[in-house]
Design a protein that fits this description.
The protein has four helices and twelve strands; from the N terminus they run H-E-H-E-H-E-E-E-E-E-H-E-E-E-E-E. By secondary structure, it is α+β, with helices and mostly antiparallel strands. Strands 4-5-10-12-6-7 form a six-stranded antiparallel β-sheet. A two-stranded antiparallel ribbon has the order 1-11.
Length: 256
């Protein structure tokens, strides 16, 4: 089977965080395995020293207005439960030309949602905030927007599948009211994000944090061949796009 380097996937921009005057800069590539280990150390340190406002969600779990906030554990809140005790993790092994390298994606499910989890190739209707470990926000959208998960970085794509959408009601004025939707946070190593790419807002080799609210999902069939893209995208989840006929076109885009 003809393979595609995982770098091809990870270089898809999750959002247009660079303006026309803010060119992406690619630094000399570091060793992927060494960077994965370094990123995991940074993420663990962050998770051990930060907490989220879980008391707000516990006191009013059905509210659709709760906003996830993360803060440092310090003297005033020394008794807070650290994120490391609340997150789950997924090992994602990606193929390179030389080896297979494991990356650890950490995710926090703050509110479960009630619908069906999206696949890695579905479309998702979300609000989000993306930030660096130092708290710098590089992008956010407080109004729901559709994202095709095949066009985002691996960490976001895999992490979004951990959440479930909610219910919605259309008012007489055609406004939509969402309820019971999923909310969570993704903690993504750079190898599952932009790796060596950088811009003025995201330095190279930066682990990323995404707070997400998932309102709705939509099954996709990108090439219109009657087979869901989720069944043709990356079945072994190695970061390599499936191409069974070896024609150079990923199966989910190939209706031949």
């Amino acid at each position: 089977m003809k393979t595609y380097s995982f770098f091809l996937i990870s270089t898809f921009l999750i959002f247009n965080f660079c303006s026309s005057e803010d060119a992406i800069i690619v630094e000399p590539t570091r060793d992927l395995m060494e960077q994965s280990i370094e990123d995991n150390k940074s993420l663990l340190t962050y998770l051990e020293t930060h907490f989220y406002n879980y008391s707000v969600f516990e006191s009013n779990p059905n509210s659709g207005r709760n906003v996830i906030k993360i803060d440092t554990i310090s003297l005033i809140n020394i008794d807070r439960i650290p994120l490391i005790d609340q997150v789950l993790s997924q090992n994602i092994t990606l193929k390179t030309n030389d080896a297979s390298v494991n990356h650890v994606l950490y995710y926090l499910s703050v509110k479960d949602g009630v619908g069906e989890n999206p696949s890695i190739a579905d479309s998702t209707f979300v609000t989000y905030q993306g930030s660096l470990l130092d708290g710098t926000v590089f992008d956010e959208n407080t109004n729901p927007i559709w994202f095709d998960l095949t066009q985002v970085v691996i960490g976001f794509r895999e992490g979004a599948t951990k959440l479930k959408p909610g219910n919605y009601f259309v008012n007489d004025d055609n406004t939509v009211l969402f309820s019971d939707f999923g909310q969570g946070v993704l903690f993504i190593p750079s190898g599952l994000a932009y790796f060596s790419q950088s811009s003025t807002v995201i330095p190279a080799y930066s682990p990323l944090i995404f707070k997400i609210s998932l309102y709705a999902t939509k099954k996709t069939d990108h090439d219109g061949d009657g087979i869901l893209s989720s069944d043709e995208f990356d079945n072994d989840k190695d970061g390599v796009l499936d191409d069974l006929d070896e024609d150079g076109v990923p199966d989910y885009l190939d209706n031949n």
